Amino acid sequence: MIEISLQLIKALKQADSVVASTGAGTSAESGIATFRQSQTGLWSRFRPEDLATPEAFEKNPQRVWEWYQWRREQLRNVQPNPGHHALAKMAAMLNGFTLITQNVDGLHQRAGSQEVIELHGSIVRNICHRSRLEVELEHLEGDQHSPPRSPHHRQGLVRPAVVWFGEALPQAALESAIQASSRCQVFLSIGTSSIVQPAASLAEMARQAGSLVVEINPASTPLSSHADMVLQGKSGEILPRILELLAEPSD
Ligand code: OAD
Asked: For residue 160, what is the enclosing H or E element?
């Protein structure tokens, strides 16, 4: 059992605002491979970087669409894990809480988290590739074995509402994430390799604003040497433990 310092619990209770910023590791215990683990099964011959790009979609929309349909099928058999649930419950126990995620799997929302800032979009939703306007698949005709035609643009095809490599992050989400990270007193970096920008800079913004920066990850990352605290372990085990300690009366 990993030891959680009472200094962290006290800081969380006293903070006017706490930010939790999550990456793929938060979904690992739900059975979803993290981004930099190799792909499984029939998609193992592809790297995500070769599929999750606008060029790949324009070159072969069918292949990219099938890859996302396969990932969405995988998601149907996946549940939020104790780490997701702990974050959802933690929000109600703290003075102020903002959840930022790089994940597109929607598991935070399924665990009950509200107002999740999705920096890299969502695989659960769909947009028109040309106009970026949201598309409700259920309102479209057809079997969806191929990317449907967009209702918003004659040449547009429907695609998942995920930020692809080389695409800009949703501006409103990024601004909210930067604001929250620059104003919080505690910043939890959970299950992310802290490599991909601009998400990886949020912890530094928090540190520069004087926040207590805490990393929760079984492995070390470029953030580890800059964090005030490193809890080396799984988010699905550490977050429920933090929640238990938060629920204990303060002395
Ligand atoms: P990565 O796959 O890069 O990193 C996952 C991190 O989770 C690693 O540091 C693991 O050590 C850690 N990890 C694994 N199991 C864990 C567990 N049970 N509990 C806690 N941590 C665990 O995933 P991300 O950092 O999320 O962007 O990748 C960031 C972005 O890279 C993705 O959002 C994607 C990709 O480019 C886009 O698609 C735009």
From this structure: strand 158-162
